[in-house]
Write a structure and sequence with these properties.
Length: about 210
């Protein structure tokens, strides 16, 4: 091979390697850095209107991100479940209101969303330091035990397909419940059946109970 041909071949190989390297997915921690501005370092939020996402289950994280990314496109949800090797039944397809999250989620591939979910799942959920009304919290505990414990287990600390409620910021929980009850955000069928029987006072007591958890 002549020198000119060899140079061209080496240049082509270099360009191919460069393109391959640039196409490789960033590390999960680098991907998650985008979230830190609102959700705090490692997903621990310092802002009461923004939820802590550390310790969140993979199913819940993926569902939220796919909802922000694809809206109500069931075909896209099914394709994402296949890509992420998840049970299609775990993809809820529920509508979630979004402002900035709708734009952010569209910037990630499904594989990147899965990697971020794995990253945050391994982080420890740190409960927010906040003051709750003890009397309302006691009432909220009773309501939780009757209506919510089956899905939000251990007083709201667990739940694979549901978010962590115990120790979550109370203002965020209030905003989320307003979205649910106003119809801006879809509720799972089981939740809808329970929430319809709760008064505004009951919901406020539940939020105080979750906020009181340390």
């Amino acid at each position: 091979m002549g020198k000119k041909a060899l140079s061209v071949a080496l240049l082509a190989a270099g360009l191919t390697m460069g393109a391959t390297a640039s196409a490789e997915m960033a590390s999960p921690s680098m991907l998650a850095d985008t979230c830190a501005g609102c959700h705090g370092p490692s997903g621990v939020s310092n802002g009461p209107a923004t939820p802590t996402i550390s310790g969140m289950s993979k199913v819940y994280f993926v569902n939220a991100m796919l909802s922000y990314k694809y809206g109500e496109d069931e075909d896209k949800f099914a394709a994402a479940a296949k890509t992420l090797k998840m049970d299609p039944d775990d993809i809820d397809g529920l509508r979630r209101p979004a402002t900035v999250m709708g734009r952010i989620a569209k910037g990630y591939s499904d594989e990147e969303i899965g990697a971020m979910a794995d990253y945050f799942t391994r982080k420890t959920f740190l409960r927010a330091s906040q003051n709750a009304d003890s009397g309302m919290a006691a009432s909220g505990r009773r309501i939780h035990d009757e209506a919510c414990e089956k899905c939000h287990e251990d007083g709201g600390r667990k739940g694979d397909g549901s978010g962590i409620l115990a120790g979550q910021w109370m203002p965020y929980l209030s905003y989320a419940m307003m979205d649910f009850t106003a119809g801006h955000r879809d509720m799972p069928k089981k939740m809808r059946a329970k929430v319809k029987d709760l008064s505004d006072k009951d919901i406020a007591a539940l939020i105080q109970f979750y906020g009181s958890q340390k």
